[in-house]
Write a structure and sequence with these properties.
The protein is 17% helix and 46% strand. It is of the alpha+beta class and 201 residues long. The chain is globular. The relative contact order is 0.15.
Length: 201
């Protein structure tokens, strides 16, 4: 299946994944240049959701669940950029996705990622989510109708030997602050998506 250049979509459109008994839709209007279903995975090029950042390349598969994609945003700070990808899951299934972010902050590893289920931040890989070496996330912790927010931390530290020790070695400090910010963001995202989630129930 192949969609050609600049295809517009609306919340009424649903992209099925028959092999996995899943489907993907969008909470807002938007467009993409191409969308193809191959090996039970939808690959979107130049995906644009109204009110969100464009996503150059998104791969997404849903197993035994329906997914409604809401938004893709970034928050910038002095030494960190936080990318947020938000969707709602209907059903107790599995989501497999790759946002193409593994190259933005160097090698992708678990310290770069958090997953938020509702307002519960899961920082430890293996507890509701797993990361593959290529930056693909496998999310298994959502059930029923639940809001999921994927967070990617792009650490951009400058190598400056004149900085104090804690600034030169501030990954742990930054992660702690980032998780705190994540909780606040998760609450805000849940408030924004609550109306739609209530409609699904």
């Amino acid at each position: 299946m192949q969609a050609q250049a600049e295809v517009n979509f609306s919340p009424a459109d649903k992209l099925s994944i028959p092999t996995y008994n899943g489907a993907i839709s969008f909470a807002v209007n938007g467009s993409y240049s191409t969308a193809s279903l191959e090996n039970a995975t939808w690959t979107f090029m130049n995906l644009r959701l109204n009110g969100s950042l464009p996503i150059e390349n998104l791969e997404f598969s849903a197993i035994n669940c329906n997914v409604t994609i809401f938004s893709y945003q970034t928050f910038n700070a002095t030494s960190i950029n936080i990318f947020l990808f938000n969707y709602v899951v209907e059903g107790k299934g599995e989501q497999i996705l790759n946002l193409g972010l593994s190259s933005k902050g160097g090698e992708s590893n678990a310290i770069n990622w958090n997953v938020v289920f509702g307002t519960h931040v899961v920082t430890t890989e293996g507890n509701g989510w797993n990361l593959l070496p290529d930056g693909t996330l496998i999310v298994t912790g959502a059930s029923g109708i639940e809001n999921v927010t994927i967070l990617y931390y792009d650490f951009s530290f400058e190598n400056n030997s004149k900085l104090p020790f804690f600034q030169q070695h501030s990954v742990a400090i930054t992660v702690t602050v980032a998780v705190a910010v994540t909780v606040v963001i998760a609450v805000l995202v849940k408030v924004r998506t609550r109306k739609h989630t209530d409609e699904l129930t």
